[in-house]
Amino acid sequence: MTDDLPLAGRGCVVTGGSRGIGAAVVRLALAQGADVVFGYHSDKDRARTLADELGAAYPDQRCVPLYAHVADTDEAERFAVAALGHLDRFDVLVNNAGVTRDTLFARMTPQQWREVIGTNLDSMYTVTKPLLMPLVKQRGGAIINIASSSGLHGIPSQTAYSAAKAGVIGFTKALAKEIGARGVTVNAVAPGLIETDMTAAIPPDKTEFLKSLIPGHAFGTPQDVAHLVCFLASDRARYITGQAIEVSGGLVV
Ligand SMILES: NC(=O)c1ccc[n+]([C@@H]2O[C@H](COP(=O)([O-])OP(=O)(O)OC[C@H]3O[C@@H](n4cnc5c(N)ncnc54)[C@H](OP(=O)(O)O)[C@@H]3O)[C@@H](O)[C@H]2O)c1
User: Fold this and answer.
1) Active-site residue 239, yes or no?
2) CA of 17 to the centre of ligand 1 (A)
3) Distance 99 CA to ligand 1 centre (A)
4) CATH number for the domain including 200?
5) Whose CA is closest to 67, among 15, 110, 12?
């Protein structure tokens, strides 16, 4: 590790890395010296374009896009095994893939509930399970799970999402205690409202209301989140584990 390249030589796996917060993490991890395998789900061309751009910018590092469906146990295992095959060493897992299906609970369909729980919470099992033992055996590494302010505070029209992200935080704290003695840290990052496709889907009048709940009256950027994720992925954060850290500009829900 150098001051400029705190992730030099580290192998990172990022789910949902083709856009939004995940893509910002992929970019910053490469800029900080890491090799990165990232998952995409629906948009192969976007993933390929990002990988080509970053491959040209960092020709001595690996940047590999792989298909992943994190809500499916078999698909997630295939992704994890393939990801390990592309890396000389594996040090960091960023569980970032997520979806929202905002609606009042009274109107929520079983499918909406399952999609949200499957992608945001089941993925903690499906992706982490096949990637855990390499970190434990190596006696070192970091797992960073992307939660949400919604999981900390509860947000109306997000009952499934709040439940899933609260689950992510519980999972994070329990796993941190299980494997702390093996030198592996496990932390959650809880973004508030960040400018990505996810928040672009919010109607304009609701967006203005949400901004009024933030002291600086502005959404954060994916980079604001990526900086914390990459810090937690580095040795600089080796004594931080079992935490859920909010990146929300002081959002008061
Ligand atoms: N934006 C916010 O304000 C905010 C706030 C709090 C928490 N978060 C959390 O931050 C994370 C990233 O959110 P974002 O705003 O960057 O979202 P986004 O722009 O909508 O991107 C979501 C990412 O997840 C991937 N994905 C979706 N379903 C998947 C599946 N079944 N299997 C594998 N990958 C899947 C997508 O891949 P494809 O594009 O290939 O489909 C995409 O890369 C999520 O966990 C989200 O819950 C976001």
Assistant:
1) no
2) 8
3) 5
4) 3.40.50.720
5) 15
Q: CB–CB of 187/245 below 8 Å? A: yes
Position 39 in a domain:
yes
Is 135 within the bounds of a domain? Answer: yes
The Å distance, Cα 121 to ligand 1 centre, comes to 13
**Per residue in 144-176, pLDDT tens?**
999 999 999 999 999 999 999 999 999 999 999
Q: Please give the Cα distance from 185 to 179 (Å, whole number).
A: 8
Please identify which residue in the block is written with the tokens 């689950």.
Answer: 167
Domain for residue 1, yes or no? no
Which two three-digit tokens encode residue 57? 């910018």
Does the pLDDT at position 143 exceed 80? yes
Cβ of 19 closer than 6 Å to ligand 1, yes or no, is yes
Q: Is residue 3 part of a domain?
A: no
Q: State how far the Cα of 85 lies from the Cα of 116, in Å rounded to an integer.
A: 29
Q: How many domains does the chain have?
A: 1
* Residue 201 lies in domain: 11-247
Residue 253 banded pLDDT, cuts 50, 70, 90? confident
Residue located via tokens 């998952």: 39
